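Encoded backbone
================
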Amino acid sequence: MREVLLTSSALILALLAVRKVFREKISRCAQYALWGLALLRLLIPANLPAVNFSLLSVSEPARAQIAERLEKEPVYVLPVSTREIAVSSSAPNVIPPVEGRYSAVKQEEGRPAVLTEYAFTLEEALELVWKTGMAGMAAWLVILNFGLWRRLRKNRIPLDLPECEYPVYLVEEGLVSPCLFGLFRPAVYLTPAALESEESLRHVLAHEETHARHLDPLWSLLRNVCLTVYWFHPLVWWAAAASKEDCELACDEGALRRLGADERVPYGQTLLRLIPVRKSVGGVLVAATTMTSDKKRLKERITRIAENRKTKAAALCAALAVTAAVCAVTFTGCAAAEEPAEAPAAPVDPVNAAEPDEAVLTIPLTDLSPYAPVKVVPLPADTPDAGHHHGDHHQNRLRAGGGCRTTENCGTFVWNYGGNTYVSSHDLRLSSYPDSYFLVFPEQEYQEEPFTGLLGYNGVKITYQVELETGECTVNDYYIFEESGDSADIYLLARTYGQSETADIDGDGELELIAGDFLKHCQLIFRRDGRLYEADIHALVHENWPGTGDFTGFLWSPEENCLHIFYSLFSSDSRQDRQLRFDGENLLLYK
């Protein structure tokens, strides 16, 4: 959807510019035909083969940043769910993941924890608004055109006009001008003014028959489909109004070719007599070819008919060349990013480590769903002294050294109250600070450690112990910081379990995150094309390697830049040791 919006906007602006520059030099039929390109771009999301000079290729970095921002910005709805969930009393009060999202939790003493707040992203909120508007727009279009169809059916009087190849009806009231209406069986509807003279009737029938030969009812329907889907886009409305105007001008040219050059002045006089002049043209949502205009456009239309301007071949070639160049950059796809240069192999001890054999199993990671850092919700306002934490307070305590620990570029702020330890952190290089505490440890120790360059971010890792059903487990939460107005927002970048290591596993110059314990966790977190992904190694190996026994542990080898994973065999107590490597796209399993 975002790709179509970008490329169609550029194409519409280019067609409007061609229309203005070549307005007096090319025929309106040619200009009207060019709007078919905008229809193709808006209604067919497929792209031609990718090229490096396409608009999508050039704009890829900016589009990736916008996509990441939309996917991680939460919008909260209260209340959405009241489902009970289990929360460990020894775990910190960090928002727990629920179905891949993060939600606020409320827990009263002696009662189960209950979800009180469910988060969905800004991208999903915009999609909901778009679909709601699209449904409303579709209903409005149906009401307008169905109402017109009923009025015409109710008030029409059949006329016997053998010289017209389409059915002709007279509508004495409720029709502003003669028109052609109907997609599969179009019919001409006339006003009493059109029957005042034989000449007027001949001109009107020639005009409406030309509309039918140009298939204008079909193009009007497709134009309305575009307005329904892209109801929020001002350029689409602009293009619809311009194409409807060009439709009438092209119809004038076609009608005069049938009537002959001698009929130019009488034809123009007929238009002056039959076209209602209004301040607002309107009518773009109606599928009938009604003729309404404002004074400026009507004057231009009559002038063009009277002057009989000829198309200049050079101007037409120039307009087509410009349009072809624009299509070349807007209809083509995004070229794949260049593969990073292969990093030099890590030094290997030739005595203690043998050369790796060919991979016995390749597990592609191309089907993983990306995720975005999740904004951390501060502790509730009724938490004791949660509001005591603010930027000025941080600065004063930082100078005094009280309740603040700093390590490299990260500061950790601590407030002890009522037997609990309230914790917040931030990047000391930022000019603003988080406004509230967001972690609470009831009589529990924790450790903090800064990180730099991990998955393209800098931040702080906070490690603590929790009690799970399978036993006690170490949890590592990686937090990053982002300035927002007068304060800083805190985002949870990743959560890992057990032993956690950082290393440039795929050799792209950026640190990935590998973690696991001796229970069931074994995680790989990496970034690809600006997006974050998490792979459950334990589940993926079991899924792709039938017959594997229980996972019993892992060992990261920095010398070999690989992960040693251990599985027990089903048939014995011995263990299988496998080397696992990551090339940026796949997990590679070696003996």
